[in-house]
Every structure is written in structure tokens, then in C-alpha cells.
């Protein structure tokens, strides 16, 4: 390959990436653009993503018509509830798999992995019936509880991997010094593995913030238990929301913003966790 | 103390020692299970119990709303196999997965190989930017796509096709365009994620081989075919399998929000049909029979996945 040939292929690759990036980002550009358009201009200039001057009218409409603080609160309670609940369950379990040797260890680990392969639609009907029995429909704790089991295996598996790679000698030294397994977990292993724990937590947080079907099934019956994703959707299907695209896009932007910001701030950690999760989960 | 004056026999001492050892060793054997118990209890209640329950419900005719249950044996399964809709849904699931195999297996792999011609900084930038759709709630991201697909004259896509003399297209209610539209949205969501996995697979291949392939011209192609592609093959296979396993899950919300499985089942698939039967038609028994079918299909794929994964792990060592 001559030098000029290499030059040409380099340019070709760049052009492909520019085009792909533009296509991938286009919906998001329009989402943001429409949210700042004057409501009258949305249909008169559909091709232009932005028009000047930007208008905040759509955001004002969203805040007027939707109880954003309540839905935001519900989304926060749900996603942080699932995140901390899963971490509290996954950390000791991952520690047990990584640190001890015991009977049926491989079989139990196998069960944890199999639990991840069960598609969510399969578990929804029985779990819904279970919550109905416990009178937890339209409650946030009812929404959180089953999520602590459903995707828990992922955190267990990932954390186990990180705990396993921690030098065994350090743990054994602590043991000789008289530390019991509880101390070893919380005083030695966890402080040294904070970064993967945070990464797994962020992964669970983003995924639960974005949940829609489950919060809709459990909480969709009462506006008091709507999460943001549910509220935005029901606003879109409501008679008032139907053609009010500016407000729908403004609500979309408000809902997407937190996860995108978290991702951009912690992107290295989150990308690594997603790759590990895909390969190991 | 009463024991002070009694002579404690050797056997008794041995026995005491043994029982205290047994006690301690019981605690020691129990410890790992105690750490596991809370997690396993949650998984058992919310994954395995529902799984068993689904299998059980599949033998009943059960309307959730009216709450009348009748044991019907294999009737749900027999009805399903005789139902033309079921076979249409199975067929469509495969059509959808074939589209995805191109969009989120072939495309991201191609892009990953193109990054060999970019600087590390650029690769870093593109993997971040292309990943953004993955972290946005699907149900929310779909809304702007619905706006693109509006059936009116001033919908964005309709505005774009007008110069070609095409009248307005009802993208989401036309049986030819609805499935591609839904597939476009679902695959747009995961393309960047799969690109990331493809990149990770490519990075695991020693850089020297790749550079050699570039420098050597004709023999470089041979190196590409004989060395680099075989090394990359497990990643490609892995991407294909996770697409088959998770594809129907990725398209679930786009269907729910854009078409509800319509028009005339044109966008329906095995996973969405379960939801439709269970939560819209309230036929829990029939939905559960569909679930068992889905589990049987996915179970096979998951088994293959772990086989592939095993080989992949050996590669890395």
C-alpha cells in the first residue's frame, strides 16, 4: 500500500464515522431542538431542528401540566432504592462466592447466572400477582422489591470477578491478624474495591432510572406512583399531550438529562462496566 | 462448682472438645451460605418462583380480571400450535432478528475495524458519542422517532420523501414499513453498545499483528484472513448470540410505544405477544404457554452462549 493510498483510506474511515455519528445523534438533536422551538414553528419548519430565538414556552408548559417534582422524587426513590438494595444484597453474595469454598458453590453460582437469562416478560405476570396479594400495587416499595431479585445476578457476577482479582495474601494476612470474615469484607475488601462497586452501582442506577414497563404495570394506576418515564409516556398518550410535541420533547429532555450527564461525567467507568457486564452477564 | 471434685475422664474431655469443634465448624460451614442467603432468597422469590408459577399457570385457563381458573392440561399449548397467529409471530421474530443481525452485529463490527485507521483519541470520542442512546430511557427516546414518523404531510420523514414524488406514508400503520421502522429505533438504541463490545474484542488482539497486516500489503491481507479474523471470530459469534437472545427484549418498548404490535400483528413477536396476552387480553394461561415456548427457545441460545464464552475465556489465558 502506498502512502497516498493509506491517506485515502484514513479519510474514508473518518467520513464514515462522521456520517454514522450524525445519524445516531440526529434524534437527540431534534429532541433538544424541538423542545426549544416556539410551538407554532414545530410543524411549519419540520426539517430545521432549531429555530431562533429559542423559546422556553414548552418547558413552562411541562411544569404547568405535569407534577415534575413528584415524578422526579418517585424516579429517584425507585432507582436509588433498586441500586442500594441490589448493592446490599450483591456485595455479601459476591464476597461469599469469591472468598469461601463450600459445597454446591458452582451449582449456586450457576443458578445466579440462569436467573439472568430468564426474560423479564416471563416473570412479570407472577410478580404482579404476588404484589397484588401483598397489596403493593401502586406503591414505590412494591415497584422496587421484585427488581432486587430480577437483575441481581449481574451485580453478583461482576463484583465476584473484581473480588477474585484482589490479592489473596492480603486477605489471609488480615485473617491471621484475627479479623473475621465480616471485617475482611467491610474493612479490607470493600474499601479496596470501591471503584468497581461504584461502577456497578452506576450501571444499576442508569438501568433502573430508564425502566418503563415494570413501573407502568405496578405504578401506572395512580398518578402518585408515576415515575418520570411513566409520566412522560402517559402525558404523550393523554388528550392534552397528543399534539403538544414541544412539551413532549421538553419532558423527554428533562428525563434523559440525568443519565446522559452521569454517563458523560463517569464515562470511562460506565463503558468498562457495560463491556464486562455484556461479556460476563 | 459441682464439677470440681468429679474426675473428668479422658473420653469426656475428648467429647467436649469434639462437640465444641463441631459447633465451631458448623458456624464455619454455615458462614458462606449466610452471606449468600439474602441474595438467593430474593432471586428465588422474584425469578425462580415466577418461573415455576408460569409453567404451572400454562396448564390453566385463567382470566386475571374475572379470576376464574380452570385446569385445562395441555390445551393452551395445543391451541397455540394450531393458531396461525402464533406461527406468524414466530416467523416475525426471526425476520426481526435477521434485520438486527445486520444492523447491530455486522455494522458495529465493520465500524470497529474502521477504527484501526483512526487515532486513539478519535476512537475514544466516537465510542462515547455513539453510546449515548444506550443510556437514554427507550420509552422516552422513542417519542422523537414517532415525531419523525408522523403520518401527516409535515412529518419529518414525509417531508423528506416528498421530493421523490411520494405521497404521505403512514409509516407506523402500514404493514410494509412498520416493522422496519420499529427495528430502526430498537437497533439505533443498541448499535453503539455493540460497537463498544466489538472494539473491546478488537483491542484484545495483539497490536503487532494488526500493524503487520497493514504494512505488508498483499501478505497483509493473508494475515488479516488467517490470523486477525479467526482471533476476532469469538467476539463476532458472541455479538450474534447476545443479539439473538436480547433482540426481542430491545425491541419490546419501541413496539409498546409505537405500534402495540400492529398493524395486524405486523410488528408483533414472541416476547411482545406474551405481554399482550397477559396484560391486555388478560389471558394468563395462554400468555404463560407462550412464555414457556420463549424460555425453551432462549434456553438453547443461552446454553450456546456459555459454551462460546468458555472458549473465549480460554483464548484470553
Please render the helix and strand layout as text.
The complex is a heterodimer of chains A (281) and B (317).
Chain A lengths: L2 H33 L5 H4 L12 H9 L2 H32 L5 H13 L2 H14 L6 H11 L1 H13 L3 H9 L4 H12 L1 H16 L3 H7 L8 H10 L7 H21 L1 H14 L1
Helix pairs in contact in A: 1-14, 3-14, 4-7, 4-8, 4-11, 5-8, 8-11, 9-10, 11-15, 13-14
Chain B lengths: L9 H48 L2 E4 L4 E4 L3 H8 L1 H31 L5 H16 L2 H11 L7 H6 L16 H26 L3 H9 L2 H33 L1 H7 L11 H11 L3 H33 L1
Antiparallel strand pairs in B: 1-2
Helix pairs in contact in B: 1-12, 3-7, 3-9, 4-7, 5-10, 7-9, 7-10, 8-9, 9-12, 11-12
In brief:
The complex is a heterodimer of chains A (281) and B (317). Chain A has 15 helices and no strands. With 281 residues, chain A is an all-alpha fold.
Features:
heterodimer, A: 281 residues, mainly alpha, MetI-like fold, 2 domains, 15 helices, globular, B: 317 residues, 75% helix, 3% strand, disordered N terminus
Structural features, described:
The complex is a heterodimer of chains A (281) and B (317). Chain A is an all-alpha fold. Chain A folds into two domains: 3-55, no CATH class; 62-280, MetI-like fold (Orthogonal Bundle). Chain A is built from 15 helices and no strands. The longest helix of chain A has 33 residues, at 3-35. The two termini of chain A are 42 Å apart. In chain B, helix 7 packs antiparallel against helix 10. Chain B has one domain (83-316): MetI-like fold (Orthogonal Bundle), CATH 1.10.3720.10. Chain B is built from twelve helices and two strands, in the order αββααααααααααα.
Amino acid at each position: 500500500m502506498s502512502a497516498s493510498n493509506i491517506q485515502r483510506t484514513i479519510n474514508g474511515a473518518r467520513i464514515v464515522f462522521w456520517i454514522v455519528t450524525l445519524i445516531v445523534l440526529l434524534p437527540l438533536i431534534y429532541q433538544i431542538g424541538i423542545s426549544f422551538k416556539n410551538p407554532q414553528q414545530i410543524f411549519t419548519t419540520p426539517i430545521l431542528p432549531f429555530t431562533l430565538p429559542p423559546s422556553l414556552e414548552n418547558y413552562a408548559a411541562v411544569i404547568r401540566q405535569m407534577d415534575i417534582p413528584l415524578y422526579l422524587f418517585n424516579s429517584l426513590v425507585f432507582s436509588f432504592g433498586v441500586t442500594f438494595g441490589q448493592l446490599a444484597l450483591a456485595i455479601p453474595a459476591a464476597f461469599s462466592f469469591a472468598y469461601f469454598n463450600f459445597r454446591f458453590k458452582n451449582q449456586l453460582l450457576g443458578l445466579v447466572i440462569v436467573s439472568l437469562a430468564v426474560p423479564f416478560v416471563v416473570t412479570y405476570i407472577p410478580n404482579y400477582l404476588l404484589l397484588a396479594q401483598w397489596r403493593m400495587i401502586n406503591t414505590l416499595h412494591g415497584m422496587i422489591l421484585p427488581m432486587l431479585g430480577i437483575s441481581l445476578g449481574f451485580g453478583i457476577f461482576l463484583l465476584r470477578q473484581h473480588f477474585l482479582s484482589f490479592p489473596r495474601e492480603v486477605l489471609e494476612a488480615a485473617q491471621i491478624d484475627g479479623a473475621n470474615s465480616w471485617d475482611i469484607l467491610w474493612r479490607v475488601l470493600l474499601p479496596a474495591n470501591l471503584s468497581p462497586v461504584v461502577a456497578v452501582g452506576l450501571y444499576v442506577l442508569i438501568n433502573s432510572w430508564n425502566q418503563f414497563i415494570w413501573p407502568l404495570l405496578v405504578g401506572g394506576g395512580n398518578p402518585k406512583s408515576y415515575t418520570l418515564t411513566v409520566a412522560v409516556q402517559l402525558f404523550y398518550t393523554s388528550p392534552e399531550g397528543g399534539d403538544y410535541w414541544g412539551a413532549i420533547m421538553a419532558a423527554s429532555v428533562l428525563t434523559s438529562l440525568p443519565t446522559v450527564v452521569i454517563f458523560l461525567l463517569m464515562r470511562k467507568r460506565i463503558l468498562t462496566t457495560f463491556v464486562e457486564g455484556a461479556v460476563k452477564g | 462448682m459441682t464439677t470440681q471434685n468429679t474426675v473428668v475422664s479422658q473420653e469426656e474431655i475428648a467429647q467436649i472438645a469434639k462437640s465444641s469443634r463441631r459447633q465451631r465448624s458448623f458456624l464455619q460451614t454455615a458462614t458462606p451460605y449466610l452471606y449468600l442467603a439474602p441474595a438467593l432468597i430474593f432471586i428465588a422469590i422474584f425469578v425462580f418462583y415466577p418461573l415455576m408459577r408460569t409453567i404451572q399457570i400454562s396448564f390453566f385457563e385463567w382470566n386475571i380480571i374475572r379470576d376464574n381458573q380452570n385446569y385445562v392440561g395441555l390445551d393452551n399449548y395445543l391451541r397455540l400450535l394450531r393458531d396461525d397467529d402464533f406461527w406468524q409471530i414466530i416467523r416475525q421474530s426471526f425476520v426481526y432478528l435477521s434485520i438486527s443481525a445486520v444492523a447491530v452485529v455486522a455494522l458495529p463490527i465493520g465500524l470497529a475495524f474502521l477504527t484501526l485507521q483512526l487515532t486513539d483519541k478519535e476512537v475514544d470520542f466516537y465510542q462515547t458519542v455513539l453510546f449515548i442512546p444506550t443510556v437514554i430511557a427507550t420509552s422516552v427516546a422513542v417519542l422523537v422517532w414517532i415525531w419523525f414518523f408522523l403520518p401527516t404531510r409535515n412529518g419529518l420523514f414525509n417531508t423528506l420523501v416528498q421530493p421523490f414524488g411520494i405521497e404521505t406514508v403512514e409509516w407506523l400503520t402500514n404493514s410494509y414499513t412498520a416493522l422496519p421502522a420499529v427495528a430502526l429505533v430498537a437497533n439505533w438504541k443498541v448499535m453503539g453498545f455493540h460497537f463498544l463490545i466489538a472494539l473491546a474484542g478488537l483491542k484484545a488482539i495483539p497490536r503487532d499483528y494488526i500493524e503487520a497486516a497493514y504494512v505488508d500489503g498483499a501478505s497483509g491481507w493473508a494475515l488479516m484472513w488467517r490470523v486477525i479474523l479467526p482471533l476476532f471470530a469469538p467476539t463476532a459469534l458472541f455479538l450474534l448470540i447476545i443479539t439473538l437472545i436480547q433482540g426481542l427484549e430491545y425491541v419490546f418498548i419501541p413496539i409498546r410505544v409505537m405500534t402495540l404490535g400492529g398493524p395486524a400483528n405486523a410488528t408483533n413477536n414472541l416476547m411482545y405477544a406474551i405481554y399482550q396476552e397477559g396484560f391486555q387480553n388478560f389471558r394468563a394461561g395462554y400468555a404463560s404457554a407462550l412464555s414457556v415456548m420463549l424460555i425453551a427457545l432462549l434456553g438453547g441460545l443461552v446454553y450456546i452462549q456459555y459454551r462460546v464464552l468458555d472458549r473465549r475465556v480460554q483464548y484470553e489465558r
